[in-house]
Amino acid sequence: MELRENINDTGFDEFNSIITGCISLIFNITLIIATSRVKIYSDHVKRLQIFTSVIRLLFSMLIVFCSPTLAYITEAEAVYIVKGGFKLPIVIGEAILIAFVTFVIFSCMGPPMQFLQVVVILKKSSRSQKQIVAITTVITFSVSLTATLLIFLGYVPNESDDKLSEEIVYYLNGRGTAAYLIASWERFDYDLNDFVPDPISWICTFYILAVLVVTTIISLVCWIIIKLEIRRGLGSSNSIKSTQQLSTVLIVQFTLPFLTIHIPFYVSFIMPLIRYETSELSIYLPYLFSWCPALSPILVLLMVKIIHSKTSLNNMFQVLQTSQVSRCTCTLSNPPWGIRIFNSAGGGDTERTSLNRQTDFDFITK
After folding, report:
1. Does the chain have fewer CB atoms within 10 Å around its N or its C terminus?
2. Domain count of the chain?
3. 234 and 173 fall within a common domain
4. Is residue 49 within 8 Å of 35, Cβ to Cβ?
5. Co-location of 278 and 346 in the same domain
6. d(CA 276, CA 237)
7. Residue 346 and residue 198 in one domain
8. Are 350 and 269 in the same domain?
């Protein structure tokens, strides 16, 4: 099989993985500290945000260790995910790649499950809140572990794949033998000297695609429900404000995986498999995978800062308003001699003070 010179002579995959890993480490730890200090969030919401940050950290560490290259190879009619980075035994490398793909799916599961929890919190009792947390947690891990099993059965190469892929792996990582995963509609069978269908790989690919599509639908539907609840104005003003702010944070957390995971997966994984030409995009877009856990805490920190600033500003206005009303009331109760108005008939001073107090209060509160 004739291939061009390998595509990773520059070492960009390792550089990209290490840089994003460092950014993720710094800002996810910062987010954990910042989230714990936001008073408007309940302990339940704080735990969810901290758990999500820990998952992002683990995802980033996996990316640093595997520095994956994902590309569609026309000659093999398959998508390859090849390990780069630190040199490790093949078996361990394959396990890390399987974990990497699992975490890609897990990262997409987080925001929609959080959206579901917020919707139930808005509509159900506290008992139901605990139940939905347990249910969404079980769903998240069940979906992810099912993906892990399917990836192991459908994407791990066999001996025939190794014979076919030796030059391909070198082309993709420039280092010769390395761990890799392969997704295709057909696998080459050396006994038959022909390509044969690979149904388990089909099932795995369609399963991952279904997870991405369904999580997108869930997030959008839940976001609409939350917006409708906010418009109804149910609960106190503080409760509505907190829900609106949390909804904004969640939609930001959903948008980033959509841009850095969903779109690269569709372009680099699905489109080549259905024979749609994507040119060099299928090689370079997957580098965005590593930026999802790195950029997400930065965006959330910005949202938390904006929320904190708005809350502080509102509190300041409330304090100023209360202070102005108090000073006005005090002044009108004991007005300065220079503006006191007397009525020669007597009692006019009290009536005028009472009238001015009411007029000034109306002006301040309007």
Report:
1. C
2. 2
3. yes
4. yes
5. no
6. 51
7. no
8. no
42 belongs to a structural domain: yes
Q: Which tokens is 340 given?
A: 């006191």
* 314-356 pLDDT per residue, tens: 554 444 444 444 444 444 344 443 333 334 344 444 433 333 3
Q: Which domain holds residue 354?
A: 335-365
Print burial letters for 102-132: b (CB count within 10 Å at least 16), e (below 16): bbbbbbbbbbbbbbbbbbbbbeeeeeebeeb
Say how far apart CA 359 and CA 346 lie, in whole Å. 22
**Beta strands 180-184 and 194-197, pairing class:** unpaired
pLDDT > 70 in the chain, percent:
70
Are 46 and 38 within 8 A, CB to CB? yes
* Listed residue (259, 170, 262, 180) closest to 215, CA to CA: 262
Angle, nearest 10°, between helix axes 126-154 and 90-123? 160
Q: What angle do CA 353, 358, 363 make, to 5 degrees?
A: 125
Q: Would you say residue 1 lies in a domain? A: no
72 & 109 share domain: yes
CB 265 within 8 A of CB 212: yes
Element (H, E) at 281: helix 281-284
- In angstroms, the CA 171 to CA 3 distance is 7
Do 127 and 99 lie in one domain? The reply is yes
Q: Facing residues of 181 across strands?
A: 81
Q: Does a structural domain hold residue 202?
A: yes
CA distance 200 to 342: 96
Dihedrals φ, ψ of 24, to 5°? Answer: -60, -45
Q: Are residues 339 and 212 in the same domain?
A: no
pLDDT digits 0-9 by tens, 11-28? 677 788 889 889 989 988
Evaluate whether residue 328 is within a structural domain: no
Residue indicated by tokens 């399963």: 207
Strands 180-184 and 78-82: antiparallel
Dihedral sign of CA atoms 163, 167, 170, 172 in order: negative
Q: CB 8: neighbour CB atoms within 10 A?
A: 20
Q: Calculate helix-pair angle for 12-37, 43-66, nearest 10 degrees.
A: 170
Ordered alpha helix ranges (H), 67-125: 90-123
